[in-house]
């Protein structure tokens, strides 16, 4: 117990001390009125180029992340007791197909979901048909079948747990997740 106390006390004193000494590096002060050498100017240009490249890389990374989030956050919805794709669902799947064409290394899990009405067995089968119809549509658009996996959750994972028409409409969906 006593040894533990000393170890904890030492860590409480040593860690902040190390952080202070490591973070308090002295800045180089350039002389006032001193003209920078051509070598210094070249380093500044090089630093500016490196900074610009890093900013470009970050912008591209944010764009990729935004595209992935858009892909995953836009569900397709189905009519009551149907697995056929609505025109709106087809438009969303066309956008998803464009993303998948531009990213051939991406695989997707297509989830089929239902509202709470109906038996568990029926809803699992309906969710499977819904995921299957989305997969078939994407395959027809040229996406390789091996990149698409389907799963049915039936009524088990509602996006809105309420028991009304608005919630049921939201829960009758196909959801895509990048694998």
Task: Characterize the structure shown.
With 179 residues, the chain is α+β, with helices and mostly antiparallel strands. It is built from five helices and four strands, in the order H-H-E-H-E-H-E-H-E. The protein has a domain of 117 residues: 2-Layer Sandwich (60s Ribosomal Protein L30, Chain: A). Strands 1-4-2-3 form a four-stranded mixed sheet. The protein is extended and about 65 Å long. It starts with a helix and ends with a strand.
Q: What does the secondary structure layout of this molecule look like, with pairings?
A:
Blueprint: H1 2-23, H2 38-73, E1 76-77, H3 87-102, E2 108-113, H4 120-140, E3 148-154, H5 165-171, E4 173-178
Parallel strand pairs: 2-3
Antiparallel strand pairs: 1-4, 2-4
């Amino acid at each position: 117990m006593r040894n533990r106390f000393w170890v904890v006390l030492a860590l409480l004193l040593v860690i902040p001390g190390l952080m202070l000494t490591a973070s308090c590096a002295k800045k180089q002060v350039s002389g006032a009125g001193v003209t920078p050498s051509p070598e210094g100017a070249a380093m500044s240009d090089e630093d500016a180029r490196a900074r610009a490249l890093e900013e470009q890389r970050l912008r591209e990374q944010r764009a990729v992340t935004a595209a992935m989030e858009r892909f995953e956050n836009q569900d397709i919805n189905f009519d009551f007791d149907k697995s056929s794709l609505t025109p709106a669902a087809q438009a969303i799947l066309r956008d998803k197909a464009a993303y998948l064409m531009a990213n051939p290394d991406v695989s997707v899990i297509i989830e089929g979901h239902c509202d709470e009405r109906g038996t568990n067995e029926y809803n699992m089968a309906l969710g499977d048909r819904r995921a299957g119809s989305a997969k078939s549509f994407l395959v027809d658009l040229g996406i390789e079948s091996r990149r698409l996996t389907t799963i049915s959750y039936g009524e088990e994972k509602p996006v809105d747990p309420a028991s009304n028409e608005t919630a049921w409409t939201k829960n009758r969906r196909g959801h895509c997740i990048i694998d």
